[in-house]
Design brief:
single chain; alpha+beta; 6-stranded mixed sheet; 2 helices; 6 strands
């Protein structure tokens, strides 16, 4: 007679959008350009795979080229797009902080994302 709908929810153990917190808890922070990507919807664990060319190593040991994988909940990346990654391994998920990034935005006041680029520069001490 009575039916209770089943609901599923993703919860990240930390605030996935806080730059300072992600800087502190992640082993690797880097900027990379997406060189190649594949989409395999039949594979829920590695739905996306990307070949990246690292353009800036901000924290941790990172190879110059890297294969990165994403599950069905992770952000899909655009080919030739440049992103910043806050990572612990080679798998992205809903809780992985990844967003478009260009050091050239730091000097721009007309770009909303310039604020987080300046924060990353301050956190890392990187001089573009």
């Amino acid at each position: 007679m009575f039916s209770v709908p089943t609901a599923y929810c993703w919860e990240c153990p930390e605030n996935p959008f806080d730059l300072e917190e992600n800087w502190d808890i992640r082993n690797q922070v880097f900027v990379a350009q997406v060189m190649k990507g594949t989409y395999a919807p039949e594979n829920p664990i590695e739905t996306f795979s990307y070949e990246l060319r690292i353009t800036a190593k901000l924290k941790g040991e990172v190879a110059d080229n890297l294969m990165l994988y994403g599950d069905s909940s992770s952000r899909s990346l655009e080919l030739s797009g440049e992103y910043i990654f806050f990572m612990d391994n080679k798998m992205m998920s809903l809780c992985t902080l990844v967003f478009p990034f260009s050091f050239s935005w730091a000097e721009r006041n007309d770009i909303r994302e310039a604020e987080y680029v300046r924060k990353v520069i301050k956190l890392s001490g990187y001089q573009p």
